[in-house]
Fold this protein.
Amino acid sequence: MSRRDEIECWLTDMDGVLVHENQALPGAAELLQQWRDEGKPYLVLTNNSMFTPRDLSARLLASGLEVPEERIWTSALATAAFLKSQQPGGSAFVIGEAGITTALHEAGFILTDTNPDFVVVGETRNYSFEAITRAIRLIAAGARFIATNPDATGPSAEGPLPATGAVAALITKACGKEPYVVGKPNPMMFRSALNKIGAHSENTGMIGDRMDTDVVAGIEAGLHTILVLTGISDQTEIAKYPFRPDEILKGVYELLSTEPVESDEI
């Protein structure tokens, strides 16, 4: 694995690393600026497939973080890239929001409920019994079953919400077929992100807050892995797993350069 000073490109998770409950975490804005100043390619990753990169860029800006949309990589974009590689110009029946439908459209896919090549389940807050029934029947008829991410629940101010993984499990129970899941912890999401910025695993670092997605996928993709303790993981959570990240930090502020800035002023 690379040492931190050998890292030339960065991938970072969003929630729990850069932001928490729509508030920028300490050091996040400064770290993004440091990468820009150093000219280091980076991508902000999220398993959330509900929003487009433009939507997420605006939400991050409202939190005080400047992240251009081209620096955001979602499970929806990774899913669209994977399906395009599998069947260019294919068709899909989609349960999801603008994040996944826009990504598939831009990848050249036709969205249809008539004999689609794929059934794609992504994040939404408007799950329809009719749409889920249609998905079950299409998969039973031969459509390939894809999920953007495995997350069973998502956060809200009132508590957890059922998410992509929960709905995919419902469909699996009804049709007997498991989905292929593109998002974390599938290292394919990291590999597609590396392709996006022309990076190589041997000199790329991954920052995350979850052992079961960010760290394990980073290890499997051959990245330098950093776990921050500003999200869901603590020492008790870390101890549950047989693997370890390369580094464990209190927060991204520990990644800020401490080298003195040269000045001509006296």
